[in-house]
Amino acid sequence: MAPSDFELAHQNQNIESKIVASLERIAQAFRVLLWEESKAFSLTPIQVQVLIFLLYHSSEKRKVSYLADEFNMTKATISDTIKTLEQKDLITKEYEPHDTRSYIIHLTKKGKDIAGKTSLFTKELRAPIDQLHPHDKEGLLLSLLNIIRHLNRSDVITIQRMCITCTYYQPSAKGQKHFCKLLNQPLYAKDLRVDCPEHKMKADMQL
Amino acid sequence: MAPSDFELAHQNQNIESKIVASLERIAQAFRVLLWEESKAFSLTPIQVQVLIFLLYHSSEKRKVSYLADEFNMTKATISDTIKTLEQKDLITKEYEPHDTRSYIIHLTKKGKDIAGKTSLFTKELRAPIDQLHPHDKEGLLLSLLNIIRHLNRSDVITIQRMCITCTYYQPSAKGQKHFCKLLNQPLYAKDLRVDCPEHKMKADMQL
DNA sequence: CCTACTTAGTTAGGACAACTACCTTTGTAG
DNA sequence: CTACAAAGGTAGTTGTCCTAACTAAGTAGG
Description:
2 copies of one chain form a homodimer.
Chain A: H1 15-40, H2 45-56, H3 64-70, H4 75-87, E1 91-96, E2 99-107, H5 109-118, H6 123-130, H7 134-153, E3 169-171, E4 178-180, E5 185-187
Helix pairs in contact in A: 1-2, 2-5, 3-4
The structure holds a DNA duplex (30 and 30 nucleotides).
């Protein structure tokens, strides 16, 4: 076999490209898992995603506009989805007196039930992660958080609620220690949140 | 602020859940980036993915059935996509004499051109990865490869071509060293491929 | 060599995804 | 009090992706 067979552009690639390729593969796995889970509950992928989000987030985030930003979709798309979920008796709308244009989306009992079940759609991913060394887990999480921070900076991901982009977060010199000024306590790598309910975006999110 | 505010189910989660959440976030970024890139070239996401795949893979993989498995879609969906790409003069079909049911899909000049450009759609991911320490990069790649291997084992991802699931791959004791029996040379972590053209799936893919 | 099975790909029809453009109502600010 | 912004909804379109049914071509058994 000629060595040139191994010289195709895609093959002698650097490690960064391989990491991107791996992430892309895992991204596809999410798509597949979400699709299967949706079908199992006679829902659509976006409906499942919305239900799960509603289960874990507080009132002020459970609005059409917030969901649209969260999922990088237009309000029209979310509005449609909500209408369907309401028809299926999985959510209810609560209009607030001080602003009747908007409403809070609540899960019904049935909605909570299904949200809880479907939120396990990523279970196939857990096994390999559980088996990593604790030290590797921390490294993996930190690397991923950094990637997300950059994606947020370049406006690919519009909303997130990670410690490392929060006003209350304080990295010490050399970025070796993490600290939360709201909880007033140090954070270990394993404590760094991906989705903190108290997140306040830093105005100047540099580095 | 009551401590119980921080006690919501989603919050005091373990590090494994945070890793899953991060990966999910990055998966969404891929979706967004692919969508934007597609729109920029007046193509659809799946058309772009197919073009990029065709650019980097050899003839025997450039068939409708293979693409369907690769992207976890039905042949019908791929067939449709190919028809559209042919109408846009981005691909041509080559029927082989020994089996006229099937054909090899070739990129036209124009197709290669667009595939090359759109394949950069992940560029926003490169910056944060480039900035990691070399040692962290290796750890990250190894962790991701392991996750993919498990996803393959549990049939979430049907096709892949990684060293660590290949007949020619030989891990030494304790999994500390990697070796390719085809190239007959040791592999460093950075050499481990995600998509090797010579990949032969191990019959017994255990561990 | 002929029938039966399998494989490669296509077609048709339908539910869902997600957009743009436009609209209504309500809140807010000069 | 008028003008603008913000929240959400409607209509119509294009694309995604499936299932089911189909054609044509290869393969294997008797």
